[in-house]
Specification:
By secondary structure, the protein is an alpha+beta fold. The chain is about 45% helix and about 25% strand. The strands form two sheets. Strands 6-5-4-3-7 form a five-stranded antiparallel β-sheet. A two-stranded antiparallel sheet has the order 1-2.
């Protein structure tokens, strides 16, 4: 956990509860008591009205009120639904980030808005997203952003297997299925790969250089010129 995140969580815990000892905070944040003592001291020096002392416990002065986040009902619904969709269908890192984001938002919402969170009855069950695919999604996304060549085995819908090396461009989510848009070195053309049909995904050491005709914008132009169903589900 980053230190900035840890400091925020300390404030949130103190704001939402009574006296907390360093041991209690250390257990909740999974750090040492010495780390808690240092963090609390730094928060107090920065002006945060935390009262208490080592060996006794800490609390946040009740007259503190963090600036409220104001959302309309529709904005709050969109935020919560978005986070629930990420938790259901996102990568492992994104899932954890969505949980943290919701906790941060809830911590600084006014009471009347906080009560509305439980009234948002829109859900996205994610039981169909295995952990192995969540972790693969993180690997693929990092390869896209770092422009690293990928190698993997791939099984087409007709059962044909092949080995591919591709230049990953972007990830797209279609009706419960994540796909990778890429420039395929084998086919010398753009291809879209379902991530659940990949095997033994490896990020190779070499970084690819974007070339005209092989970039994401070129892929999107190609998609726009064709029927989406043909462009996005072109047989690899």
């Amino acid at each position: 956990m980053r230190r900035a995140d840890r400091l925020f969580r300390i404030v949130r815990v103190l704001r939402g509860s009574r006296l907390q000892t360093a041991r209690m905070l250390a257990q909740k944040l999974e750090v040492s008591e010495r780390t808690i003592y240092r963090d609390v001291r730094d928060l107090q020096i920065s002006g945060m009205p935390i009262e208490g002392e080592p060996g006794v416990g800490y609390t946040l002065r009740r007259d503190l009120d963090l600036p409220p986040l104001m959302f309309t009902r529709d904005e709050l619904t969109a935020l919560v639904l978005g986070a629930r969709l990420v938790r259901a269908w996102g990568g492992a890192a994104s899932t954890a980030a969505a949980d943290q984001a919701l906790q941060r938002i809830e911590a600084v919402l006014p009471t009347e808005l906080r009560d509305r969170l439980d009234a948002i009855l829109m859900y996205a069950p994610g039981s169909r997203m295995p952990q192995v695919l969540r972790e693969r999604l993180d690997v693929l996304h990092e390869a896209c952003t770092d422009r690293r060549v990928l190698a993997f085995g791939y099984t087409r819908e007709d059962g044909q297997n092949s080995e591919r090396e591709v230049r990953p461009l972007a990830l797209y989510f279609w009706s419960g299925v994540w796909t990778l848009a890429a420039w395929c070195e084998l086919r010398k053309d753009f291809r879209t790969f379902r991530i659940d049909r990949m095997q033994n995904v490896r990020v190779l050491g070499r970084e690819y250089v974007q070339k005209k005709g092989q970039r994401l914008e070129d892929y999107l132009r190609q998609v726009a010129r064709q029927y989406p169903s043909e462009a996005l589900h072109k047989s690899p």
